[in-house]
DNA sequence: GGGGGCTATGGGGGG
DNA sequence: CATAGCCCCC
């Protein structure tokens, strides 16, 4: 046995968990309690105890987590770490399905439909059925379909389920089951799997082939570990059980999780799996990691405090033995843009006072749309930053266009890809032709590609269609003879995409071209990867098809940025598992965090609270929370109360910051907020703020704004002009507003949006 | 029958 | 603020 000095880096509970080799094991791990360390050291420990690396399966939820895990294992055991089956549920199953999918009727080169593909497919089905797409909302239907799949409810079972059917009837969507059925058929006929299918088809594969397939993987995966178990759904748990729960199994299953950090119930995750696990594996050994090594005392205490407002939880209290540290700062901004300014000013101050690097700092928000104002202010202050998520590289139009051709090259039955590019670049195949084609395909239950081949000879746009067919055939032929890079190069040239983009000299056009080039570089890297791992699953993976499968499951989070020292901007969801010396959690307002979409039931609010818990526990030393009194949301100004979560942190952990004056900093049209009171007091004063009917708001011409006029301002509400000074373009109105804390405001008429009343 | 421009509509978190 | 669908022109 090799070096086991890593055991000395662990506390007692951690060490027990790591050294637990045989039988089921559950680790409940609070934030910052060394969960990843336990997981990786346990894998290293297994390898040191002569377990073959490729017989260890470690499932995570993000590629990043999987990659980090591998890197950390490698530091202990060396290159053998690369043979561990560590990856996301989706990527590991996709890898297996590439080999095994033909056993359940799919091609090995199956396409992965992303969310947009699924959505346009559902919309097409709705159109075919002549249903009202306002009633039959594609997103609602997709979430219905997704949750059916995640609960192993087939279209047949769905139609027999009285509860589901009556719910749909109540929602005025009685045809949901029919849409579900058609959706499944259309995906299957296109040789495509959506994200849920990667799990569902894996389940079906194991379930239907107990001898050849299931037994093979049961034997292969001697040890199974699941990270973030609280985020698993029913289907994922069933797959895990198929792999480890069988006659004669060693039951070497280890799950790691924290119910307080369960934030994915919207995609079917259920904490019930934790309770179920204890029932299914009664001999399970349970270890609770509660000592927090990450954050200073006030942060830890506030986190404990806030989570007690949730009824549903496994009792657990995190603690730290390093007392002291800063209190949590709470900052109020008058508007969303002001919030951007306050936060970037605070960042500058932190960097100076605490000598922080950009990379020590993160701004976390509830929704991607909030990133814009921070971006603006950070750029203005020359602070380097990187935004994660949002429109990822692979979701950009030009990238999706190229990928659609790649998909067609690999699998011409891919209807969604075909629809996307059959007329891009323009080749004279319009809506009418496409509709005819689609109808033909639907009647004969064949793919659009086959329809195209059959229909082409006898119709008016014959020539264009035949050209397209020849194009795709030539791409396929090229792919037979060349490597992935050469084929993609051929694709962008032969299809005319490259030419088309090069003729566009706008800034957007140039950036599109750059993106295509970046994509090409990516393929090249992929092809030239020199790492050779010879097994049934990876030896063939340098192909175009392998590359496609790879990128289909990548997200923005997976790209390493060129610049190293940057401030991180990301959603609270994607921040899970990360930590930063200084964290700014922003937009802490009712209707935003908690989200207006999740305020209906107490369960939903509890999930939002767990999300908040995740957010604040990312901070190691300096935590700042901010909220804006007014904010642009959906194209209008909204006034929201400060988030309820701010009141749940325990006042002794908070420090409410006075708005500092930065008179010369300019840029903002809004005066600094003056004295900031306690949050409760603010709440009351805010309530007096009238909601402005934005639809009927129309700014008056500036000459109408004279002394004594009653005016309405979009952000500040109703007020009276007391004075006008300056001349022409530089006129400034002094206005007393009725319902804001700091009523006297000076407003530049050139920029102001004021409506004269009466 | 295809192409281009305009209007209306919807808008969360992610593999 | 982005995309889909619609209308009008070629």
Give the termini separation. 87 Å
Can you tell me the overall shape? globular
| Overall pLDDT level | 87
The total count of strands amounts to: 21
Main sheet characteristics: 8 strands, mixed
The number of helical runs is: 27
Q: Strand percentage, roughly? A: 5-15%
Point out poorly predicted stretches.
660-692
Q: How much helicity do the residues have?
A: 40-55%
The whole-angstrom Rg is: 29 Å
What structural class results from the helix and strand content? alpha/beta
Characterise this structure.
The protein contains 27 helices and 21 strands. With 758 residues, the chain is of the alpha/beta class. Helix 12 (234-244) links the parallel strand 6 (223-226) and strand 7 (253-257). Helix 20 (448-455) crosses helix 21 (462-481). The chain binds a DNA duplex (15 and 10 nucleotides) through helix 4, helix 10 and helix 19.
């Amino acid at each position: 046995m090799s070096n086991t000095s890593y055991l000395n880096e662990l506390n007692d509970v951690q060490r027990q968990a790591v050294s637990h080799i045989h039988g089921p094991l559950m680790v409940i791990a609070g934030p910052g309690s060394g969960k990843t360390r336990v997981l990786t050291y346990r894998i290293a420990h297994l390898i040191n105890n002569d377990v073959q690396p490729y017989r260890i399966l470690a499932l995570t939820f993000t590629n990043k987590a999987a990659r980090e895990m591998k890197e950390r294992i490698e530091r202990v055991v060396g290159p053998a770490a690369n043979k561990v089956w560590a990856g996301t549920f989706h990527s590991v199953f996709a890898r297996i399905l590439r080999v095994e999918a033909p056993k359940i009727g799919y091609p090995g080169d199956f396409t992965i439909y992303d969310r947009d593909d699924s959505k346009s497919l559902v919309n097409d089905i709705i159109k075919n059925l002549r249903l009202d797409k306002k009633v039959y909302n594609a997103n609602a239907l997709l979430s219905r379909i997704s949750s059916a799949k995640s609960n192993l409810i087939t279209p047949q079972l769905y139609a027999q389920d009285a509860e589901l059917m009556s719910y749909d009837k109540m929602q005025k969507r009685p045809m949901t089951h029919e849409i579900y059925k058609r959706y499944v058929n259309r995906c299957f006929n296109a040789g495509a799997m959506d994200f849920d299918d990667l799990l569902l088809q894996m389940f079906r594969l194991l379930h239907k082939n107990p001898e050849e397939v299931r037994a093979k993987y049961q034997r292969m995966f001697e040890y199974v570990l699941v990270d973030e178990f609280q985020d698993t759904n029913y289907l994922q748990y069933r797959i895990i059980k198929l792999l480890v729960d069988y006659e004669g199994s060693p039951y070497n299953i280890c799950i790691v999780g924290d119910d307080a950090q369960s934030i994915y119930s919207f995609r079917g995750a259920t904490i019930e799996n934790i309770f179920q696990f204890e029932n299914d594996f009664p001999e399970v050994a349970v270890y609770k990691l509660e000592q927090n090594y990450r954050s200073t005392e006030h942060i830890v205490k506030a986190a404990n405090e806030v989570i007690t407002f949730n009824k549903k939880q496994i009792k657990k209290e995190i603690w730290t033995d390093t007392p002291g540290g800063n209190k949590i700062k709470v900052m109020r901004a008058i508007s969303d843009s002001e919030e951007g300014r306050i936060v970037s000013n605070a960042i500058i101050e932190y960097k100076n006072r605490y000598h922080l690097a950009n990379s020590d700092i993160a701004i976390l928000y509830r929704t991607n749309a909030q990133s814009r104002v921070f971006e603006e202010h950070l750029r203005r202050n020359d602070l380097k930053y990187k935004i994660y998520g949002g429109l990822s590289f692979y979701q950009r139009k030009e990238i999706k266009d190229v990928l659609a051709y790649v998909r067609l090259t690999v699998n011409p039955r891919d209807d969604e890809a075909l629809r996307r590019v059959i007329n891009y670049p323009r080749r004279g195949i319009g809506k009418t032709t496409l509709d005819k084609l689609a109808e033909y395909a639907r009647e004969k239950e064949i793919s659009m590609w086959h329809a195209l081949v059959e229909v082409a000879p006898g119709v008016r746009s014959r020539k264009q269609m035949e050209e397209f067919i020849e194009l795709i055939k030539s791409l396929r032929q090229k792919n037979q003879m060349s490597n992935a890079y050469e084929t993609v190069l051929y694709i962008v040239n032969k299809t005319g995409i490259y030419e088309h983009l090069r003729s566009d000299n706008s800034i957007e056009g140039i950036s599109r071209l750059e993106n295509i080039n970046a994509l090409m570089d990516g393929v090249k890297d992929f092809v030239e990867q020199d790492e050779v791992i010879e097994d049934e699953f990876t030896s063939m993976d340098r192909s175009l098809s392998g590359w496609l499968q790879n990128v289909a499951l990548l997200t923005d989070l997976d790209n390493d940025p060129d610049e190293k020292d940057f401030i991180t901007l990301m959603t609270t969801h994607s921040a899970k598992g990360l930590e930063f010396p200084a964290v700014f959690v922003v937009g802490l307002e009712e209707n935003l965090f908690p989200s207006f979409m999740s305020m209906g039931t107490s369960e939903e609010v509890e999930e939002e609270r767990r999300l908040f818990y995740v957010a604040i526990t990312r901070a190691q030393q300096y935590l700042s929370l901010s909220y804006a009194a007014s904010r642009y949301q959906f194209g209008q100004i909204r006034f929201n109360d400060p988030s309820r979560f701010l009141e749940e942190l325990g006042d002794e952990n908070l420090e409410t910051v006075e708005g500092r004056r930065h008179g010369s900093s300019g840029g903002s049209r809004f005066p600094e907020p003056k004295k900031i009171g306690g949050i409760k007091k603010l709440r009351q004063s805010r309530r007096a703020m009238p909601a402005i009917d934005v639809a009927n708001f129309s700014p008056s011409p500036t000459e109408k704004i004279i002394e004594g006029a009653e005016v309405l301002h979009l952000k500040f509400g109703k007020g009276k002009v007391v004075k006008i000074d300056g001349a022409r373009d530089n006129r400034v109105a002094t206005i007393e507003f009725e319902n804001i804390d700091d009523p006297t405001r000076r407003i530049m008429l050139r920029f102001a949006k004021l409506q004269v009343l009466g």
